[in-house]
Recover the amino acids of this structure.
C-alpha cells in the first residue's frame, strides 16, 4: 500500500505525526511519503496544491490529511474540495458514537449543491443542485453495504417534500438498499437533524446529499462535545483520504498541546477501510484506555501534551 | 384588523381555540372569521385550499394557522407552501429562547432551493437555488431592523465558501445591516448549527436562506426540548400568518390533551408584530406562571387538558 501523508497547516503536522506512528506499528512494510500543501505552502510558493503534489496524491492508495487553514480570500480555492473532485472521493464518512448510540453518516461528496454549476445575472445568483443517477447509485450502494455490515438499517435524509431532485435521490437509495436487503426509512432533513440530537440511538447508517450531510454531521458532533475528537474519511474507487474533522487551530499551533485523538482515530477508520477490523478495534480501545487514565490534552481539561498522549496510545497498543 | 382563523387538521382546532380566546381578551373589537383547509378538507371536497379560502386569506391582515396533515401523496401540494407563495410571506420567524439565550431566526421564505425551478433529465434531476437581489434585500432589511430593536447584532448563516449564490446573499445582507448600524458577522451554516447548540448565548438575530433556515430552526428547537412549544410567524408586506411549529398529531387528536402553549405563544408573536410589546409580554408571563404552577398537559408530564391550560392562561392574563 502506498500511504501519502499531507500534514498541512497549523496543528496539522503535530497531530499527524503520532497518527503515522500508530499506523506504522501495524504496517511498517507499507510505503510512506509526504506532500506539502495548504495555506503556508500557498504563501511560500503561490500554489496551495502543486502539480507534483497532485500526482503524488493520485498515486496514493491511502492519504492521511492533517488540517489546512483556508484564508478568507475568494481567489483561494479550497484544497480539500479540489482533492475530493480530482480523486473522485465520492463518499464522506463521519462516524459519531457515544454511550448508547453508534451512527455512521454517509454523505455524497461530489455533487448536489457542490456541483460548481453557478452563475450571476444582474439581479440574481443561481446555483444548480445536481443529483445524478450514477452519483446517487454509488453513494446508495456504499451506504447500504455499510449498513449490511452493521445493524442493516439505512435512513435517507432528504427534502423530497420540496425538492424533485430528492424524490429522485430517495427512489434510487431505496432501490439499492432493497437489493441487498437493508431496511430503509426516509426522513426530512430538518426533522432528522433534530431527531438525531434527541434520539441518536434510533439511527444506524444515514445517507444524504452533500450539503445536508455537511450540516447534519456538524450538528451530530454536538453529541460528542464538538468537532475536536472526530475523524472522517473521504472514499473513492481508487483512493481513500482520512482527515480529523477539526481545523488547523493556528492559535495553539507549535505549542505541542494539540489533541491528537481525532487524527489517531483516523487510523482506526483507515484500518477498518483496509478490512482490518480487529486492528481498528485495538486502536479505539487504546484511545479509550488512555482517556480513562486521564492522559488528556488541555482542551479536555488535562495537562498532557500531544506527544505524551500519542506515546501513551502507542504503549497501550 | 381582519383576523382569519385556519384551524386545519388533527389537534389544530383544539389548540387554536384557546389561542383565539386569548387574542379576544386584548382585541374583542377585531373582525374574526374562519376558513376550512387542509387534509380533511381535501378528503371531503377534493381541494385542500379552495378559491373561497384563498380569497378570505388574501383579505386577512392576520392569520392564525393551526396545523395540517400532509399525506405522503406526491399529488398533494403543501398548503402552507402555497399560502407562503400566494401571500408573499417572505420572512419566516422563529424565536428560540431559554435561560441565558434569546435568538431570533429569520429565514428567507420564498426562494433559494424552494424556487420550484426544477427538472428531470434521463439520468439526473436538478433544482435551481435562486437568490435574487430583491428577495435578499427585503429579508436583510427585515432581519436588520429586528436586530436594531434587540441587541443590534446580526449573524448571516451562509455557505459562501461553496456557493456563489451565497457570496451574493452575504454581500447584500452586510450592506443592509450597515445602513442601519447593526453589527454583522458571517458564519458557515454547518459551523453555525453546531455553535448555536453549544453557545446559544452568543446569538441575537440570525438571517439565512430558505432551506438553511429550515434546518437551523429545527436544530435550535433542541435547546427548548423539541418542536412542541415553539411558535412561528410568516410575514409579508400585507399579511402575517402565525403558526405553532408542531404538527397535527393525529394520534392524540380529539382527546383534549394537546398542548396549547405553542398556539398561545403565536398570540404573543402576533401582538409583538402589531407593535403591542406590553401585551405580548403579558401573554408570555402568563404562560410562564401557568407552567410554574404545574398546570401542564401530558407531553410535559402533567395531567391537565388543553382546555384547563388555556383557561389557566386566560385567568393569569
Ligand atoms: C471546508 C468546507 C469546504 C467543507 C465542506 O463544506 O465540505 C467542510 O465543511 C467539511 O465538512 O469538510
Ligand atoms: C412542511 C414543510 C414544507 C415546511 C418547510 O420545509 O418549510 C416545514 O418544514 C417548515 O419548516 O415550515
Amino acid at each position: 500500500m502506498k500511504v501519502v501523508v499531507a500534514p498541512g497547516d497549523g496543528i496539522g503536522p503535530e497531530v499527524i505525526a503520532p497518527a503515522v506512528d500508530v499506523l506504522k506499528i501495524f504496517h511498517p512494510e507499507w510505503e510512506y511519503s509526504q506532500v506539502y500543501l495548504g495555506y503556508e505552502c500557498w504563501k511560500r510558493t503561490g500554489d496551495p496544491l502543486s502539480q507534483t503534489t497532485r500526482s503524488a496524491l493520485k498515486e496514493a492508495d491511502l492519504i492521511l490529511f492533517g488540517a489546512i487553514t483556508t484564508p478568507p480570500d475568494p481567489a483561494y480555492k479550497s484544497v480539500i474540495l479540489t482533492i475530493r473532485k480530482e480523486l473522485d472521493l465520492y463518499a464522506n464518512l463521519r462516524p459519531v458514537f457515544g454511550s448508547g448510540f453508534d451512527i455512521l453518516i454517509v454523505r455524497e461528496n461530489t455533487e448536489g449543491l457542490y456541483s460548481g454549476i453557478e452563475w450571476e445575472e444582474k439581479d440574481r445568483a443561481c446555483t444548480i443542485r445536481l443529483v445524478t443517477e450514477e452519483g446517487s447509485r454509488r453513494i446508495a450502494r456504499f451506504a447500504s453495504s455499510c449498513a449490511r455490515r452493521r445493524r442493516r438499517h439505512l435512513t435517507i435524509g432528504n427534502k423530497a417534500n420540496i425538492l424533485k431532485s430528492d424524490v429522485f435521490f430517495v427512489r434510487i437509495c431505496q432501490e439499492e438498499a432493497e437489493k441487498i436487503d437493508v431496511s430503509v426509512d426516509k426522513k426530512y432533513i430538518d426533522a432528522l437533524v433534530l431527531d438525531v440530537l434527541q434520539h441518536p440511538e434510533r439511527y444506524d447508517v444515514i445517507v444524504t446529499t452533500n450539503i445536508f450531510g455537511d450540516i447534519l454531521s456538524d450538528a451530530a458532533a454536538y453529541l460528542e462535545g464538538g468537532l475536536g475528537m472526530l475523524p472522517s474519511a473521504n472514499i473513492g474507487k481508487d483512493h481513500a483520504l482520512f482527515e480529523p474533522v477539526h481545523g488547523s487551530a493556528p492559535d495553539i499551533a507549535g505549542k505541542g498541546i494539540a489533541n491528537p485523538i481525532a487524527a489517531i482515530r483516523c487510523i482506526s477508520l483507515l484500518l477498518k477501510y483496509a478490512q482490518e477490523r480487529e486492528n481498528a478495534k485495538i486502536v479505539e480501545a487504546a484511545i479509550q484506555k488512555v482517556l480513562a487514565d486521564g492522559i488528556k490534552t488541555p482542551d479536555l481539561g488535562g495537562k498532557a501534551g500531544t506527544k505524551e498522549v500519542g506515546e501513551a496510545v502507542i504503549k497501550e497498543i
Observations:
- The two ends of chain A are 22 Å apart (CA to CA).
- Residues 91-229 of chain A form a domain with the Isopropylmalate Dehydrogenase fold (CATH 3.40.718.10).
- Chain A has two domains: 1-89+236-317, 91-229.
- The CA atoms of residues 6 and 36 of chain A lie 6 Å apart.
